[in-house]
Amino acid sequence: MSFMALKHLHVTFVAISVVLFILRFFWRSIGAKIAQQKWVKIVPHIIDTALLLTIVGMLIHWRMWPWETAWLLNKIVGLVGYIVFGLVAMKASYRWLRYVGFIVALSWIMFLLHIAFSKQAIITF
Question: Name one GO cellular component term (predicted).
Fold first, then answer.
């Protein structure tokens, strides 16, 4: 697979992952029955796994590693932040906490997009 095809596949999985996250949060917030369907709980894991595989493929192509490249390390920090607050958004017992988790998870997505486009680290270690 060419690098451009891998990159486009990666961007496609990012878009699908974010849209599914927003949809799932919306469905959960309004108490929609679709939020409880099995596919709604399984498909995001499949998409996110494919997303991570495209990341690994691009890292191998670039021969770059997060522990050697500051902006890639920032991407890992952002990904962990997105996952943690995404879990809060989906699983918190209190409605207000789910909304806080959702807003913070979206903030981490914006952070990740900034890093992806600028290739500049914001957080220094």
Answer: plasma membrane
